[in-house]
Design a protein that fits this description.
The protein is an alpha/beta fold. The chain has helices at residues 11-18, 23-29, 32-36, 43-58, 68-82, 88-94, 103-118, 123-129, 153-162, 174-183, 213-216, 218-227, 229-242, 250-258, 270-303, 310-319, 324-349, 354-361, 377-435, 487-503, 532-546, 565-581, 593-599, 634-646, 649-657, and strands at 146-150, 167-170, 186-189, 202-205, 442-443, 449-454, 469-473, 476-481, 511-514, 519-523, 552-557, 585-589, 605-609, 611-615, 618-621. A 5-stranded parallel beta sheet has the order 10-11-12-8-13, with helices on both faces. Strands 2-1-3-4 form a 4-stranded parallel beta sheet, sandwiched between helices. Bound molecules: adenosine-5'-triphosphate. Residues 474-652 form the DNA mismatch repair proteins mutS family domain.
Length: 658
């Protein structure tokens, strides 16, 4: 796919899209989250790009919504759909549906919608969906204990770009490598030429290291799963609640997720925990061991009667001889026992293994007895190094093992989240269809539309109180009727049905058929008489309209208010003639139906929304327009009522004039 061929995608946007793993797939799926993850692309822009891709694929020029009022109704429709989405993703994705004149586009959406309408919007699924969001990138994790090394400048640049998590170092020879091995726990050498060389430390020659990121930087995958843990668990719950086959084994996913901490470290391994705690507690354990030994000795000394020979006592007094010799002679056994207790304490408090315990013994070395007992700091440091290295190696092994498991789950995890989000889109459509008793309309080549029991969700009364409307039009038609009879609401319903139908969506009617309109022109009622300039502008607009393409739906509400009634009737008659010639489908709401019909040079069809009578000062109306029927206006009805109630020549004469 040539990205720049997509309407609205310039060179800069195309470059940004090329950053994505698979821009074509993202565009094909309409995956607004993936598109918006390219740098500098907002969600609004992602919607435009996704729509552009659809238009490009279907050769659609996307000009169905031809007027402000038509666009306004489309926004209302999108609002109704979005109200039924749980996730922000679904809300944005719903915006990619737009009314099209392309048969293939409409069909594409209809097959998606037909499946969607089968989906049961189970509250448990909706609840689970509330935790799902598109997968997030965790950002670059810096790994300090490992580095990459190469002697090749090109390879160096390649490594820096591929593995931003690791430092890349230059190593020309074994000496350089030894140097690096002293600074890093692990050195990964990218050059084959170093294979077989003997270097002290953890130095691995891995020419394929850049191609195996799960092994080279397992932290990357771990961070990805740690960052997205909640959304992955929520997506898994969505699949289970909706009873949809997941793209991976959910238990394996949950198990893998339970092994990684929020910061990407592996958890739940006893050996790692033992080593990490031992490193942390080493100083405290040595201190306590010292106390244990000294307490033991102190106690022993306290309980002992020491007999000292005169000669010894003299040398103690005269030569300042140390008391140690005395200690050694009198308490050698107790001293050994004290050391043993101290060593045992270190070994058991830190849960050391036999190898580590061997070093720990030397923390309290054999030798001439002293009091108080003191540890050997150098050995403590050695033990610390030993334990830290074992801990880091254990962590590295755990990370590598877990990353291996996760690498198999990586693509399915993406699909898992994406499928859950797409399910939300389907459920929004399903809920819309259920809430407004929708059906999928049919398209055919016949001119016009036919709506059976249509009920607009956009009325100012609750949907339950909306009275069903039947209406069919196949040419240029006038719609007459009493004030507040529902003429504007009927135009809204027709526009709504046409817009939804051409989006490929279900429509709020028991049945609907229509022609695939090239354009939908809907002109709302203008607010009062226009001045000369505005009138001229409006006339120009209609001039352009009647010169436009075939196959249009034109809905106009009380155009007569733009100027004085006599002139209006002539102008509307002229517009209707032109539209009739073009085989357009038009409904003009007007109170001047009689005058327009007289001014027109063809038999204009006039339909009417008829009041069935007046009840307690309120009009009773049949909301479905009657075909070929000029409805009585409200004044006519009232005169008729008075004439009936009161009789008399005045009312009868008045009635005659209608
Ligand atoms: N199908 C319907 N079901 C229930 N109520 C409706 C229906 N159609 C219209 N109404 C009610 O009637 C009111 C008037 O409707 P609308 O504005 O469409 O009439 P109108 O014939 O265009 O009026 P006007 O001649 O004053 O322009 C609406 O605000 C709505 O409350």
């Amino acid at each position: 796919m040539e990205l720049e061929a997509i309407p609205g995608v310039g060179a800069k946007t195309a470059d940004a899209l090329h950053e994505l793993d698979d821009p074509e797939a993202a565009l094909r799926r309409g995956d607004v989250a993936a598109i918006a993850s390219a740098s500098g692309i907002t969600h609004g822009r992602a919607v435009q790009i996704a729509r552009g891709a659809v238009r490009d694929r279907h050769g659609d020029d996307g000009r169905v919504l031809a007027t402000d009022r038509a666009r306004e109704l489309y926004r209302d429709v999108i609002g109704l759909l979005k109200d039924r989405a749980v996730t922000d993703y679904a809300e944005t994705r719903l915006e990619t549906f737009y009314p099209s004149a392309s048969r293939s586009r409409i069909e594409e959406v209809r097959s998606f919608v037909a499946d969607a309408m089968e989906r049961e919007p189970d509250p448990a699924v909706l609840e689970a969906l509330s935790g799902v969001e598109p997968m997030e990138s965790p950002g670059t994790v810096r790994v300090r204990e490992r580095c990459l090394a190469t002697a090749d400048a090109e390879r160096y640049a390649e490594a820096e770009a591929a593995m931003p998590e690791l430092s890349v170092e230059t190593a020309e020879d074994v000496r350089d490598l030894s140097e690096l091995a002293r600074s890093y726990a692990t050195v990964i050498v990218l050059d084959e030429s170093f294979a077989g060389l003997d270097v002290h430390g953890d130095v691995r020659v891995r020419p394929d290291a850049l191609e195996t990121p799960a092994e080279t930087v397992p932290e990357r995958l771990l961070a990805r799963f740690a960052t997205n843990r909640d959304r992955l668990l929520a997506a898994a719950a969505v699949h289970e609640a909706a009873d949809v086959d997941p793209p991976c084994d959910l238990e394996a996913l949950r198990d893998a997720l339970s092994r990684v901490d929020d910061d990407g470290t592996v958890i739940g391994d006893d050996e790692f925990d033992r080593l990490a705690t031992a490193v942390d507690d080493l100083d405290a354990a040595v201190g306590t061991a010292e106390s244990v030994a000294n307490d033991h000795l102190r106690q022993a000394i306290r309980e002992r009667d020491v007999t000292i020979e005169g000669q010894d006592f003299l040398s103690l007094v005269e030569q300042g001889a140390r008391v140690d010799s005395l200690l050694s002679r009198e308490l050698a056994d107790e001293y050994d026992a004290a050391l043993e207790r101290a060593r045992d304490h270190v070994v058991s408090a830190l849960r050391l293994d036999p190898g580590e315990a061997e070093i720990a013994k030397r923390v309290f070395p054999e030798g001439d007895p002293t009091f108080p007992v003191e540890h050997d700091e150098e050995t403590v440091s050695r033990l610390r190094n030993e334990l830290s290295t074992a801990r880091d190696q254990r962590a590295a092994t755990l990370k590598a093992d877990l990353a291996e498991d996760l690498s198999e789950l990586s693509d399915p995890a993406d699909d898992l989240v994406r499928d859950a989000l797409e399910l939300d889109v389907e459920l929004a459509v399903s809920r819309f269809a259920r809430d407004f008793d929708c059906t999928l309309p049919t398209f055919d080549r016949d001119r016009g539309f036919r709506i059976v029991e249509g009920r607009s969700p956009l009325l100012d009364v609750s949907y339950a109180d909306a009275e069903p409307v039947d209406y069919a039009v196949s040419g240029a038609t006038l719609l007459s009727g009493v004030n507040s009879g529902g003429k504007t609401s009927t135009l809204d319903l027709v526009a709504l049905v046409a817009i939804l139908a051409q989006m490929g969506m279900p429509v709020p009617a028991a049945e609907a058929r229509l022609e695939r309109f090239e354009e939908i022109h809907y002109y709302a009622k203008s607010q009062g008489t226009l001045d000369a300039g505005a009138f001229e502008a409006t006339l120009r607009e209609f001039g352009d309209l009647v010169e436009g393409a075939d196959g249009r739906l034109v809905l106009v509400d009380e155009l007569e208010s733009i100027t004085e009634p006599g002139a209006s009737a002539k102008i509307i008659a002229g517009i209707l003639e032109a539209l009739e010639d073009q085989a357009a489908t038009a409904v003009f709401v007007s109170h001047l139906a009689r005058e327009i019909r007289e001014a027109a040079d063809f038999p204009v069809a006039v339909d009417g929304i008829e009041a069935t009578g007046l009840e307690d000062g309120e009009l009773r109306v049949n909301r479905s327009p009657q075909k070929d029927h000029l409805a009585r206006s409200t004044p006519e009805l009232i005169v008729e009522k008075l004439s009936g109630e009161r009789g008399g020549a005045f009312y009868e004469d008045l009635l005659e004039k209608f």
